[in-house]
Amino acid sequence: MANSNVNLAAPVGDASPDSDPTVGWGTIYAIVLGTFALWVALLTVLSRAFS
Amino acid sequence: MNALDYVVLVGTILGIASYGIWRTRDRRSLHTYLKGEGRTRWLGIGLSVMATQASAVTFLSTPGQGFKDGLGFVQIYFGMPIALVIIAVVFLPIYRRLNVYTAYEYLGRRFDSKTRLLGAAIFLLQRGLGAGITIYAPAIVLSTVMGWRLDVTIICSGLVVVGYTALGGSDAVNITQKQQIAVIFAGMIAAAVLLWSKLPAELTLSDTLTLAGQFHKLQAVNYSFSLKERYTFWSGLLGATFLMLAYFGSDQSQVQRYISGASLRESRLGLMFNAVFKIPMQFFILSLGVLLFVFYQFHQAPVYFNQVAWNHQLAQGDRARLEELETSFAAAQEQQRQNLQTWIEARHQGNSQAETEARAAAAVTQAQIDAFRQQAAEAVDAKKKTSDSDYVFITFILNYLPHGLIGLLIAAFFAAALSAKAAELNALSTTTTIDIYRHFISPDAHESHYLLASKCFVVMWGIIAILFALFVALVENLIQAVNIVTSIFSPVVLGLFMIGFFLPRVGGTAAFFGALLAQVLVIALYCSPLSISYLWYNLIGCLTCVMFGILLYQLPPTAAPATSVAPTE
Questions:
Q1: ipTM of the complex, rounded to two decimals
Q2: What is the reported pTM?
Q3: Cβ-defined contact of B263 to A18 (cutoff 8 Å)
Q4: Is-contact B408 B183, C-beta < 8 A?
Q5: Are B279 and B74 in contact (CB under 8 A)?
Q6: End-to-end CA gap in chain B
Q7: H-helix or E-strand containing B464?
Protein backbone atom coordinates (compact mmCIF):
# COMPACT_ATOMS: atom_id res chain seq x y z
CA MET A 1 0.00 0.00 0.00
CA ALA A 2 2.50 2.57 1.13
CA ASN A 3 5.50 2.43 -1.15
CA SER A 4 7.86 4.44 0.99
CA ASN A 5 9.98 3.47 3.96
CA VAL A 6 8.52 6.50 5.75
CA ASN A 7 5.65 5.83 8.15
CA LEU A 8 2.57 7.24 6.42
CA ALA A 9 0.06 6.52 9.17
CA ALA A 10 -0.73 8.71 12.16
CA PRO A 11 2.28 9.05 14.48
CA VAL A 12 2.35 7.28 17.82
CA GLY A 13 4.12 9.76 20.05
CA ASP A 14 6.43 12.16 18.27
CA ALA A 15 9.66 10.72 17.01
CA SER A 16 10.41 13.38 14.41
CA PRO A 17 13.96 14.73 14.56
CA ASP A 18 13.06 18.35 15.11
CA SER A 19 10.68 17.75 17.99
CA ASP A 20 11.74 19.10 21.37
CA PRO A 21 11.00 16.65 24.21
CA THR A 22 11.41 19.37 26.85
CA VAL A 23 8.50 21.45 25.53
CA GLY A 24 5.67 19.29 26.88
CA TRP A 25 3.23 19.34 24.00
CA GLY A 26 0.53 17.65 26.05
CA THR A 27 0.57 20.62 28.42
CA ILE A 28 0.46 23.11 25.55
CA TYR A 29 -2.51 21.35 23.94
CA ALA A 30 -4.28 21.20 27.32
CA ILE A 31 -3.76 24.96 27.77
CA VAL A 32 -5.07 25.66 24.24
CA LEU A 33 -8.19 23.51 24.72
CA GLY A 34 -8.67 24.89 28.24
CA THR A 35 -8.57 28.44 26.86
CA PHE A 36 -11.18 27.42 24.30
CA ALA A 37 -13.41 25.98 27.05
CA LEU A 38 -13.05 29.21 29.03
CA TRP A 39 -14.13 31.24 25.98
CA VAL A 40 -17.21 29.05 25.50
CA ALA A 41 -18.06 29.47 29.19
CA LEU A 42 -17.55 33.25 29.00
CA LEU A 43 -19.69 33.59 25.86
CA THR A 44 -22.39 31.39 27.41
CA VAL A 45 -22.45 33.62 30.52
CA LEU A 46 -22.61 36.70 28.27
CA SER A 47 -25.53 35.20 26.31
CA ARG A 48 -27.43 34.26 29.48
CA ALA A 49 -26.68 37.42 31.47
CA PHE A 50 -27.85 39.85 28.78
CA SER A 51 -30.72 37.99 27.14
CA MET B 1 -11.38 60.53 0.99
CA ASN B 2 -8.90 63.36 0.57
CA ALA B 3 -5.27 63.51 -0.62
CA LEU B 4 -3.92 62.40 2.79
CA ASP B 5 -6.09 59.26 2.71
CA TYR B 6 -4.89 58.39 -0.80
CA VAL B 7 -1.25 58.88 0.23
CA VAL B 8 -1.76 56.54 3.22
CA LEU B 9 -3.65 53.97 1.09
CA VAL B 10 -1.31 53.85 -1.91
CA GLY B 11 1.83 54.23 0.24
CA THR B 12 0.83 51.35 2.52
CA ILE B 13 -0.16 48.91 -0.22
CA LEU B 14 2.74 49.61 -2.59
CA GLY B 15 5.23 49.96 0.28
CA ILE B 16 4.41 46.48 1.63
CA ALA B 17 4.49 44.92 -1.85
CA SER B 18 7.85 46.57 -2.66
CA TYR B 19 9.32 45.47 0.67
CA GLY B 20 8.24 41.87 -0.03
CA ILE B 21 9.87 41.92 -3.48
CA TRP B 22 13.07 43.48 -2.13
CA ARG B 23 13.41 41.00 0.74
CA THR B 24 13.01 38.01 -1.60
CA ARG B 25 15.09 39.32 -4.50
CA ASP B 26 17.67 36.48 -4.22
CA ARG B 27 15.29 33.47 -4.30
CA ARG B 28 16.75 31.33 -7.10
CA SER B 29 15.84 27.70 -6.31
CA LEU B 30 12.52 25.91 -6.66
CA HIS B 31 12.63 24.85 -3.00
CA THR B 32 13.06 28.37 -1.58
CA TYR B 33 10.53 29.74 -4.08
CA LEU B 34 7.83 27.24 -3.09
CA LYS B 35 8.62 26.69 0.61
CA GLY B 36 10.78 29.66 1.57
CA GLU B 37 14.14 29.46 3.27
CA GLY B 38 12.71 27.49 6.20
CA ARG B 39 13.61 30.15 8.76
CA THR B 40 10.10 31.34 9.62
CA ARG B 41 9.46 31.41 13.38
CA TRP B 42 6.19 30.60 15.11
CA LEU B 43 4.85 34.15 15.16
CA GLY B 44 5.46 34.54 11.43
CA ILE B 45 3.73 31.20 10.78
CA GLY B 46 0.84 32.13 13.07
CA LEU B 47 0.28 35.53 11.47
CA SER B 48 0.60 34.06 7.97
CA VAL B 49 -2.01 31.37 8.72
CA MET B 50 -4.28 34.03 10.23
CA ALA B 51 -3.83 36.44 7.29
CA THR B 52 -4.55 33.66 4.76
CA GLN B 53 -7.84 32.76 6.42
CA ALA B 54 -9.00 36.33 7.06
CA SER B 55 -9.93 37.92 3.75
CA ALA B 56 -11.23 41.46 3.27
CA VAL B 57 -14.77 40.13 3.75
CA THR B 58 -13.80 39.23 7.34
CA PHE B 59 -13.06 42.83 8.19
CA LEU B 60 -15.54 44.55 5.88
CA SER B 61 -18.64 42.38 6.27
CA THR B 62 -18.30 40.71 9.68
CA PRO B 63 -18.95 43.94 11.65
CA GLY B 64 -22.11 44.27 9.52
CA GLN B 65 -23.05 40.72 10.50
CA GLY B 66 -22.58 41.66 14.17
CA PHE B 67 -24.73 44.77 13.58
CA LYS B 68 -27.51 42.71 12.02
CA ASP B 69 -27.46 39.35 13.84
CA GLY B 70 -25.23 39.81 16.87
CA LEU B 71 -22.43 37.54 18.07
CA GLY B 72 -23.84 34.14 16.98
CA PHE B 73 -21.45 33.80 14.00
CA VAL B 74 -18.54 33.31 16.44
CA GLN B 75 -19.75 29.71 16.94
CA ILE B 76 -18.40 28.71 13.50
CA TYR B 77 -14.91 29.09 15.02
CA PHE B 78 -15.59 26.70 17.93
CA GLY B 79 -14.23 23.81 15.87
CA MET B 80 -10.96 25.58 15.16
CA PRO B 81 -8.93 24.91 18.35
CA ILE B 82 -9.86 21.22 18.23
CA ALA B 83 -9.06 20.94 14.53
CA LEU B 84 -5.72 22.74 14.89
CA VAL B 85 -4.64 20.49 17.77
CA ILE B 86 -5.47 17.41 15.64
CA ILE B 87 -3.51 18.88 12.71
CA ALA B 88 -0.53 19.71 14.96
CA VAL B 89 -0.51 16.15 16.37
CA VAL B 90 -1.32 14.12 13.24
CA PHE B 91 -1.05 16.00 9.93
CA LEU B 92 1.92 18.29 10.49
CA PRO B 93 4.54 15.69 11.58
CA ILE B 94 3.73 13.59 8.51
CA TYR B 95 3.96 16.53 6.09
CA ARG B 96 7.31 17.55 7.58
CA ARG B 97 8.66 14.01 7.71
CA LEU B 98 7.83 13.50 4.01
CA ASN B 99 9.21 16.97 3.18
CA VAL B 100 6.33 17.53 0.75
CA TYR B 101 5.59 20.68 -1.21
CA THR B 102 1.85 19.99 -1.31
CA ALA B 103 -0.63 18.08 0.84
CA TYR B 104 -1.64 16.02 -2.21
CA GLU B 105 1.85 14.55 -2.53
CA TYR B 106 0.99 12.67 0.66
CA LEU B 107 -2.04 11.09 -1.09
CA GLY B 108 0.26 9.95 -3.91
CA ARG B 109 2.74 8.40 -1.45
CA ARG B 110 0.09 6.76 0.70
CA PHE B 111 -2.34 5.66 -2.05
CA ASP B 112 -1.67 6.15 -5.76
CA SER B 113 -1.51 8.72 -8.55
CA LYS B 114 -5.25 8.80 -9.24
CA THR B 115 -6.06 9.59 -5.60
CA ARG B 116 -3.37 12.31 -5.58
CA LEU B 117 -4.86 13.73 -8.78
CA LEU B 118 -8.36 13.63 -7.27
CA GLY B 119 -7.22 15.63 -4.21
CA ALA B 120 -5.25 18.14 -6.30
CA ALA B 121 -8.03 18.50 -8.88
CA ILE B 122 -10.68 19.21 -6.24
CA PHE B 123 -8.40 21.85 -4.68
CA LEU B 124 -7.69 23.49 -8.06
CA LEU B 125 -11.38 23.38 -8.97
CA GLN B 126 -12.64 25.03 -5.81
CA ARG B 127 -9.80 27.52 -5.32
CA GLY B 128 -9.50 28.21 -9.04
CA LEU B 129 -13.25 28.88 -9.34
CA GLY B 130 -13.18 31.01 -6.23
CA ALA B 131 -9.99 32.77 -7.24
CA GLY B 132 -11.71 35.96 -8.28
CA ILE B 133 -14.03 36.27 -5.31
CA THR B 134 -11.25 37.26 -2.90
CA ILE B 135 -10.64 40.31 -5.11
CA TYR B 136 -14.20 40.88 -6.29
CA ALA B 137 -16.01 40.88 -2.92
CA PRO B 138 -14.14 43.87 -1.38
CA ALA B 139 -13.80 45.63 -4.75
CA ILE B 140 -17.57 45.74 -5.32
CA VAL B 141 -18.19 47.30 -1.88
CA LEU B 142 -15.23 49.73 -1.93
CA SER B 143 -15.74 50.86 -5.52
CA THR B 144 -19.42 51.49 -4.81
CA VAL B 145 -18.92 53.71 -1.78
CA MET B 146 -15.75 55.41 -3.03
CA GLY B 147 -17.09 56.05 -6.53
CA TRP B 148 -14.16 54.20 -8.10
CA ARG B 149 -14.50 52.18 -11.29
CA LEU B 150 -14.97 48.51 -10.39
CA ASP B 151 -12.82 47.19 -13.25
CA VAL B 152 -9.91 49.55 -12.41
CA THR B 153 -10.10 48.57 -8.71
CA ILE B 154 -10.02 44.85 -9.58
CA ILE B 155 -7.19 45.14 -12.13
CA CYS B 156 -4.98 47.37 -9.95
CA SER B 157 -5.30 45.23 -6.81
CA GLY B 158 -4.94 42.04 -8.90
CA LEU B 159 -1.73 43.21 -10.61
CA VAL B 160 -0.11 44.21 -7.29
CA VAL B 161 -0.70 40.78 -5.74
CA VAL B 162 0.30 38.86 -8.88
CA GLY B 163 3.47 40.96 -9.11
CA TYR B 164 4.93 40.31 -5.67
CA THR B 165 3.69 36.70 -5.46
CA ALA B 166 5.21 35.78 -8.84
CA LEU B 167 8.51 37.53 -8.10
CA GLY B 168 9.06 36.50 -4.48
CA GLY B 169 7.20 33.21 -4.04
CA SER B 170 6.28 31.74 -0.67
CA ASP B 171 8.59 33.93 1.42
CA ALA B 172 7.20 37.09 -0.22
CA VAL B 173 3.73 35.94 0.82
CA ASN B 174 4.90 35.28 4.40
CA ILE B 175 6.80 38.56 4.72
CA THR B 176 4.07 40.78 3.28
CA GLN B 177 1.38 39.01 5.33
CA LYS B 178 3.12 40.08 8.56
CA GLN B 179 3.06 43.76 7.50
CA GLN B 180 -0.47 43.46 6.15
CA ILE B 181 -1.90 41.95 9.32
CA ALA B 182 -0.18 44.71 11.36
CA VAL B 183 -1.96 47.33 9.20
CA ILE B 184 -5.26 45.46 9.58
CA PHE B 185 -5.02 45.25 13.38
CA ALA B 186 -3.88 48.89 13.70
CA GLY B 187 -6.84 50.03 11.61
CA MET B 188 -9.44 47.87 13.36
CA ILE B 189 -8.26 48.81 16.87
CA ALA B 190 -8.21 52.54 15.98
CA ALA B 191 -11.75 52.24 14.57
CA ALA B 192 -12.94 50.44 17.74
CA VAL B 193 -11.43 53.09 20.04
CA LEU B 194 -13.00 55.95 18.06
CA LEU B 195 -16.35 54.13 17.88
CA TRP B 196 -16.37 53.67 21.65
CA SER B 197 -15.44 57.34 22.19
CA LYS B 198 -18.40 58.45 20.06
CA LEU B 199 -21.02 56.65 22.19
CA PRO B 200 -23.05 58.97 24.48
CA ALA B 201 -21.02 60.00 27.53
CA GLU B 202 -23.72 58.88 29.97
CA LEU B 203 -23.74 55.34 28.54
CA THR B 204 -21.71 53.05 30.84
CA LEU B 205 -20.28 49.64 29.83
CA SER B 206 -23.10 47.97 31.76
CA ASP B 207 -25.69 50.12 29.93
CA THR B 208 -24.12 49.26 26.56
CA LEU B 209 -24.19 45.52 27.26
CA THR B 210 -27.76 45.64 28.59
CA LEU B 211 -28.91 47.65 25.59
CA ALA B 212 -27.25 45.26 23.11
CA GLY B 213 -28.63 42.28 25.02
CA GLN B 214 -32.12 43.79 24.96
CA PHE B 215 -32.04 43.54 21.16
CA HIS B 216 -30.58 39.99 21.19
CA LYS B 217 -27.18 41.07 19.86
CA LEU B 218 -25.25 39.23 22.58
CA GLN B 219 -26.65 35.75 21.87
CA ALA B 220 -23.20 34.29 21.24
CA VAL B 221 -23.97 30.66 22.06
CA ASN B 222 -27.06 28.74 20.97
CA TYR B 223 -27.37 25.21 22.38
CA SER B 224 -30.29 24.24 20.09
CA PHE B 225 -30.07 20.75 18.53
CA SER B 226 -31.88 21.83 15.34
CA LEU B 227 -30.03 20.80 12.16
CA LYS B 228 -31.70 23.63 10.26
CA GLU B 229 -30.29 26.46 12.39
CA ARG B 230 -27.08 27.55 10.72
CA TYR B 231 -24.95 28.51 13.73
CA THR B 232 -25.36 26.53 16.94
CA PHE B 233 -22.89 25.29 19.55
CA TRP B 234 -23.24 21.75 18.17
CA SER B 235 -22.82 22.63 14.48
CA GLY B 236 -19.83 24.75 15.53
CA LEU B 237 -18.27 22.03 17.65
CA LEU B 238 -18.91 19.04 15.34
CA GLY B 239 -19.57 20.35 11.82
CA ALA B 240 -17.09 23.23 11.98
CA THR B 241 -14.36 20.99 13.43
CA PHE B 242 -14.50 18.99 10.19
CA LEU B 243 -14.74 22.20 8.14
CA MET B 244 -11.59 23.53 9.84
CA LEU B 245 -9.85 20.15 9.58
CA ALA B 246 -10.54 20.14 5.83
CA TYR B 247 -9.44 23.75 5.40
CA PHE B 248 -6.32 23.78 7.58
CA GLY B 249 -5.33 20.15 7.08
CA SER B 250 -5.92 19.50 3.38
CA ASP B 251 -6.23 22.88 1.65
CA GLN B 252 -2.88 23.74 0.11
CA SER B 253 -3.29 27.50 0.69
CA GLN B 254 -3.03 26.80 4.44
CA VAL B 255 -0.72 23.75 4.37
CA GLN B 256 1.88 25.74 2.40
CA ARG B 257 1.89 28.42 5.10
CA TYR B 258 2.68 26.21 8.07
CA ILE B 259 4.98 23.62 6.48
CA SER B 260 7.42 26.46 5.75
CA GLY B 261 8.25 26.83 9.47
CA ALA B 262 11.86 26.61 10.70
CA SER B 263 11.05 23.38 12.59
CA LEU B 264 8.15 21.19 13.62
CA ARG B 265 8.05 23.10 16.90
CA GLU B 266 7.77 26.50 15.19
CA SER B 267 5.04 25.25 12.82
CA ARG B 268 3.08 23.72 15.70
CA LEU B 269 3.34 26.87 17.81
CA GLY B 270 2.17 28.90 14.81
CA LEU B 271 -0.96 26.73 14.62
CA MET B 272 -1.50 26.96 18.38
CA PHE B 273 -1.26 30.76 18.10
CA ASN B 274 -4.31 30.61 15.82
CA ALA B 275 -6.06 28.05 18.05
CA VAL B 276 -5.83 30.52 20.94
CA PHE B 277 -6.37 33.88 19.23
CA LYS B 278 -8.88 33.22 16.43
CA ILE B 279 -12.00 33.10 18.63
CA PRO B 280 -11.10 36.34 20.50
CA MET B 281 -10.30 38.00 17.16
CA GLN B 282 -13.67 37.09 15.65
CA PHE B 283 -15.38 38.05 18.91
CA PHE B 284 -13.69 41.45 18.69
CA ILE B 285 -14.76 42.01 15.05
CA LEU B 286 -18.36 40.93 15.74
CA SER B 287 -18.39 43.09 18.90
CA LEU B 288 -17.42 46.03 16.71
CA GLY B 289 -20.67 45.37 14.81
CA VAL B 290 -22.65 45.21 18.05
CA LEU B 291 -21.09 48.53 19.11
CA LEU B 292 -22.09 49.97 15.73
CA PHE B 293 -25.66 48.86 16.45
CA VAL B 294 -25.58 50.72 19.79
CA PHE B 295 -23.93 53.72 18.14
CA TYR B 296 -26.68 53.98 15.50
CA GLN B 297 -29.33 53.90 18.24
CA PHE B 298 -28.12 57.40 19.14
CA HIS B 299 -26.96 58.70 15.72
CA GLN B 300 -28.96 59.11 12.53
CA ALA B 301 -28.50 56.08 10.26
CA PRO B 302 -29.65 55.79 6.65
CA VAL B 303 -32.62 53.49 6.07
CA TYR B 304 -30.37 51.71 3.55
CA PHE B 305 -26.59 51.83 4.08
CA ASN B 306 -25.67 51.29 0.41
CA GLN B 307 -26.53 54.88 -0.48
CA VAL B 308 -25.41 54.52 -4.11
CA ALA B 309 -27.96 51.74 -4.68
CA TRP B 310 -30.59 53.67 -2.71
CA ASN B 311 -30.09 56.91 -4.68
CA HIS B 312 -30.17 54.91 -7.91
CA GLN B 313 -33.52 53.47 -6.81
CA LEU B 314 -34.79 56.95 -5.95
CA ALA B 315 -33.89 58.13 -9.46
CA GLN B 316 -35.55 55.08 -11.05
CA GLY B 317 -39.04 56.03 -9.90
CA ASP B 318 -41.46 55.54 -7.02
CA ARG B 319 -39.56 58.41 -5.40
CA ALA B 320 -42.53 59.57 -3.31
CA ARG B 321 -42.94 56.19 -1.62
CA LEU B 322 -39.23 55.83 -0.89
CA GLU B 323 -38.96 59.38 0.51
CA GLU B 324 -41.96 58.66 2.72
CA LEU B 325 -40.16 55.54 3.90
CA GLU B 326 -37.08 57.64 4.72
CA THR B 327 -39.20 60.13 6.68
CA SER B 328 -40.98 57.39 8.64
CA PHE B 329 -37.65 55.72 9.38
CA ALA B 330 -36.10 58.98 10.64
CA ALA B 331 -39.13 59.58 12.88
CA ALA B 332 -38.86 56.05 14.30
CA GLN B 333 -35.16 56.59 14.97
CA GLU B 334 -35.90 59.85 16.80
CA GLN B 335 -38.56 58.05 18.84
CA GLN B 336 -36.03 55.33 19.65
CA ARG B 337 -33.47 57.89 20.84
CA GLN B 338 -36.07 59.30 23.25
CA ASN B 339 -37.03 55.81 24.46
CA LEU B 340 -33.42 54.97 25.18
CA GLN B 341 -32.68 58.30 26.90
CA THR B 342 -35.67 57.63 29.16
CA TRP B 343 -34.44 54.11 29.76
CA ILE B 344 -30.90 55.25 30.70
CA GLU B 345 -32.19 57.90 33.08
CA ALA B 346 -34.59 55.43 34.73
CA ARG B 347 -31.80 52.87 35.01
CA HIS B 348 -29.40 55.35 36.60
CA GLN B 349 -32.09 56.53 39.04
CA GLY B 350 -32.96 52.94 39.97
CA ASN B 351 -36.57 53.39 38.82
CA SER B 352 -37.27 49.81 37.69
CA GLN B 353 -40.87 50.39 36.60
CA ALA B 354 -39.94 53.30 34.29
CA GLU B 355 -37.01 51.25 33.04
CA THR B 356 -39.27 48.30 32.17
CA GLU B 357 -41.74 50.58 30.36
CA ALA B 358 -38.95 52.29 28.38
CA ARG B 359 -37.47 48.93 27.38
CA ALA B 360 -40.87 47.70 26.19
CA ALA B 361 -41.34 50.89 24.15
CA ALA B 362 -37.85 50.52 22.67
CA ALA B 363 -38.61 46.93 21.63
CA VAL B 364 -41.76 48.07 19.79
CA THR B 365 -39.92 50.93 18.05
CA GLN B 366 -37.04 48.62 17.09
CA ALA B 367 -39.52 46.29 15.40
CA GLN B 368 -40.76 49.28 13.36
CA ILE B 369 -37.18 50.25 12.46
CA ASP B 370 -36.43 46.68 11.34
CA ALA B 371 -39.62 46.64 9.26
CA PHE B 372 -38.64 49.92 7.54
CA ARG B 373 -35.17 48.53 6.78
CA GLN B 374 -36.77 45.40 5.34
CA GLN B 375 -39.06 47.49 3.11
CA ALA B 376 -36.05 49.49 1.93
CA ALA B 377 -34.12 46.30 1.12
CA GLU B 378 -37.07 44.97 -0.87
CA ALA B 379 -37.40 48.27 -2.75
CA VAL B 380 -33.77 48.14 -3.92
CA ASP B 381 -32.96 45.72 -6.73
CA ALA B 382 -33.28 42.18 -5.39
CA LYS B 383 -30.51 41.01 -7.76
CA LYS B 384 -27.84 43.10 -6.04
CA LYS B 385 -24.58 41.24 -5.39
CA THR B 386 -24.03 42.39 -1.81
CA SER B 387 -25.99 42.54 1.42
CA ASP B 388 -26.73 45.97 2.90
CA SER B 389 -25.02 44.89 6.13
CA ASP B 390 -21.73 44.84 4.12
CA TYR B 391 -21.97 48.64 3.96
CA VAL B 392 -22.56 49.35 7.67
CA PHE B 393 -18.90 49.50 8.77
CA ILE B 394 -17.59 51.33 5.69
CA THR B 395 -20.39 53.93 6.05
CA PHE B 396 -19.30 54.57 9.66
CA ILE B 397 -15.64 54.82 8.59
CA LEU B 398 -16.31 57.35 5.84
CA ASN B 399 -18.70 59.47 7.90
CA TYR B 400 -17.13 59.49 11.36
CA LEU B 401 -13.38 58.76 11.17
CA PRO B 402 -10.73 61.49 10.64
CA HIS B 403 -8.80 61.76 7.38
CA GLY B 404 -5.65 59.68 7.38
CA LEU B 405 -7.37 57.02 9.45
CA ILE B 406 -9.91 56.56 6.63
CA GLY B 407 -6.98 55.86 4.29
CA LEU B 408 -5.52 53.42 6.82
CA LEU B 409 -8.81 51.49 7.13
CA ILE B 410 -9.25 51.27 3.35
CA ALA B 411 -5.59 50.11 3.16
CA ALA B 412 -6.44 47.49 5.83
CA PHE B 413 -9.28 46.11 3.70
CA PHE B 414 -7.04 45.91 0.64
CA ALA B 415 -4.22 44.40 2.73
CA ALA B 416 -6.62 41.66 3.87
CA ALA B 417 -7.71 40.99 0.28
CA LEU B 418 -4.11 40.86 -0.97
CA SER B 419 -2.81 38.65 1.84
CA ALA B 420 -5.51 36.01 1.27
CA LYS B 421 -5.17 36.24 -2.53
CA ALA B 422 -1.37 35.92 -2.43
CA ALA B 423 -1.57 32.70 -0.40
CA GLU B 424 -4.18 31.31 -2.82
CA LEU B 425 -2.09 32.15 -5.91
CA ASN B 426 1.00 30.69 -4.27
CA ALA B 427 -0.87 27.44 -3.46
CA LEU B 428 -2.57 27.17 -6.86
CA SER B 429 0.78 27.61 -8.60
CA THR B 430 2.55 25.09 -6.34
CA THR B 431 -0.15 22.44 -6.78
CA THR B 432 -0.26 22.96 -10.56
CA THR B 433 3.55 22.71 -10.78
CA ILE B 434 4.16 19.80 -8.39
CA ASP B 435 1.03 17.65 -8.62
CA ILE B 436 0.10 18.17 -12.26
CA TYR B 437 2.97 19.58 -14.36
CA ARG B 438 5.96 17.81 -12.78
CA HIS B 439 4.09 14.60 -12.00
CA PHE B 440 2.12 14.06 -15.22
CA ILE B 441 3.36 16.38 -17.97
CA SER B 442 7.10 17.04 -17.65
CA PRO B 443 8.62 14.75 -14.99
CA ASP B 444 12.35 15.03 -15.85
CA ALA B 445 13.01 18.69 -16.47
CA HIS B 446 15.70 20.80 -14.75
CA GLU B 447 14.85 22.60 -11.50
CA SER B 448 15.13 26.02 -13.19
CA HIS B 449 12.42 24.87 -15.62
CA TYR B 450 10.02 24.15 -12.74
CA LEU B 451 10.90 27.47 -11.10
CA LEU B 452 9.97 29.32 -14.29
CA ALA B 453 6.83 27.16 -14.63
CA SER B 454 5.81 28.05 -11.04
CA LYS B 455 6.13 31.77 -11.79
CA CYS B 456 4.15 31.36 -15.01
CA PHE B 457 1.41 29.49 -13.12
CA VAL B 458 1.16 32.34 -10.58
CA VAL B 459 0.61 34.75 -13.49
CA MET B 460 -1.84 32.34 -15.16
CA TRP B 461 -3.96 31.91 -12.01
CA GLY B 462 -3.72 35.66 -11.35
CA ILE B 463 -5.10 36.43 -14.81
CA ILE B 464 -7.88 33.86 -14.29
CA ALA B 465 -8.70 35.50 -10.92
CA ILE B 466 -8.81 39.00 -12.43
CA LEU B 467 -10.94 37.87 -15.39
CA PHE B 468 -13.28 35.98 -13.06
CA ALA B 469 -13.59 39.06 -10.82
CA LEU B 470 -14.30 41.27 -13.86
CA PHE B 471 -17.03 39.03 -15.26
CA VAL B 472 -18.53 37.61 -12.06
CA ALA B 473 -21.10 40.41 -12.05
CA LEU B 474 -22.42 39.17 -15.38
CA VAL B 475 -23.17 35.65 -14.18
CA GLU B 476 -26.05 35.29 -11.79
CA ASN B 477 -25.44 33.31 -8.60
CA LEU B 478 -21.85 32.44 -9.51
CA ILE B 479 -20.56 33.36 -6.05
CA GLN B 480 -23.20 31.18 -4.47
CA ALA B 481 -22.24 28.31 -6.80
CA VAL B 482 -18.58 28.62 -5.81
CA ASN B 483 -19.45 28.59 -2.10
CA ILE B 484 -21.53 25.45 -2.63
CA VAL B 485 -18.71 23.76 -4.55
CA THR B 486 -16.32 24.49 -1.67
CA SER B 487 -18.61 23.22 1.06
CA ILE B 488 -19.58 19.98 -0.68
CA PHE B 489 -16.20 18.95 -2.13
CA SER B 490 -13.57 19.67 0.54
CA PRO B 491 -14.95 17.28 3.24
CA VAL B 492 -14.43 14.30 0.93
CA VAL B 493 -10.77 15.27 0.44
CA LEU B 494 -10.46 15.38 4.22
CA GLY B 495 -11.96 11.86 4.28
CA LEU B 496 -9.10 10.68 2.03
CA PHE B 497 -6.53 12.07 4.45
CA MET B 498 -8.33 10.49 7.41
CA ILE B 499 -8.25 7.07 5.70
CA GLY B 500 -4.58 7.59 4.92
CA PHE B 501 -3.66 8.49 8.49
CA PHE B 502 -5.85 6.14 10.50
CA LEU B 503 -6.76 3.14 8.30
CA PRO B 504 -3.50 1.60 7.06
CA ARG B 505 -5.24 -1.45 5.57
CA VAL B 506 -7.38 0.59 3.15
CA GLY B 507 -5.70 0.93 -0.26
CA GLY B 508 -5.82 3.54 -3.01
CA THR B 509 -8.61 2.02 -5.11
CA ALA B 510 -10.93 1.61 -2.11
CA ALA B 511 -10.17 5.17 -0.94
CA PHE B 512 -10.65 6.62 -4.43
CA PHE B 513 -14.02 4.96 -5.08
CA GLY B 514 -15.07 5.54 -1.47
CA ALA B 515 -14.43 9.25 -2.02
CA LEU B 516 -16.43 9.27 -5.26
CA LEU B 517 -19.39 7.50 -3.59
CA ALA B 518 -19.26 9.90 -0.64
CA GLN B 519 -19.20 12.83 -3.06
CA VAL B 520 -22.31 11.54 -4.85
CA LEU B 521 -24.05 11.15 -1.47
CA VAL B 522 -23.20 14.70 -0.37
CA ILE B 523 -24.38 16.15 -3.70
CA ALA B 524 -27.62 14.10 -3.45
CA LEU B 525 -28.08 15.40 0.09
CA TYR B 526 -27.57 18.97 -1.11
CA CYS B 527 -30.14 18.48 -3.90
CA SER B 528 -32.66 16.80 -1.58
CA PRO B 529 -35.45 18.75 0.12
CA LEU B 530 -33.72 18.32 3.50
CA SER B 531 -32.49 21.82 4.37
CA ILE B 532 -29.49 20.85 6.47
CA SER B 533 -27.07 23.60 7.51
CA TYR B 534 -23.96 23.46 5.30
CA LEU B 535 -21.67 22.98 8.32
CA TRP B 536 -23.06 19.46 8.72
CA TYR B 537 -21.98 18.51 5.16
CA ASN B 538 -18.39 18.62 6.40
CA LEU B 539 -19.01 15.95 8.99
CA ILE B 540 -21.24 13.83 6.71
CA GLY B 541 -18.88 14.03 3.69
CA CYS B 542 -15.79 13.08 5.67
CA LEU B 543 -17.39 10.26 7.68
CA THR B 544 -19.14 8.68 4.67
CA CYS B 545 -15.88 8.77 2.69
CA VAL B 546 -14.16 6.91 5.54
CA MET B 547 -17.10 4.49 5.84
CA PHE B 548 -17.15 3.68 2.09
CA GLY B 549 -13.37 3.28 2.20
CA ILE B 550 -13.74 0.67 4.95
CA LEU B 551 -16.55 -1.13 3.10
CA LEU B 552 -14.48 -1.28 -0.11
CA TYR B 553 -11.13 -2.02 1.51
CA GLN B 554 -10.85 -5.51 0.00
CA LEU B 555 -10.41 -3.92 -3.43
CA PRO B 556 -6.78 -4.41 -4.47
CA PRO B 557 -4.52 -1.40 -3.90
CA THR B 558 -2.91 0.28 -6.89
CA ALA B 559 0.87 0.47 -6.72
CA ALA B 560 1.87 4.06 -6.06
CA PRO B 561 4.49 5.42 -8.43
CA ALA B 562 7.90 6.41 -7.14
CA THR B 563 8.11 10.12 -6.57
CA SER B 564 11.03 12.43 -7.09
CA VAL B 565 10.51 14.15 -3.75
CA ALA B 566 12.87 12.53 -1.28
CA PRO B 567 11.71 12.01 2.30
CA THR B 568 13.87 13.47 5.05
CA GLU B 569 14.34 10.23 6.92
A1: 0.84
A2: 0.87
A3: yes
A4: yes
A5: yes
A6: 57
A7: helix B447-471
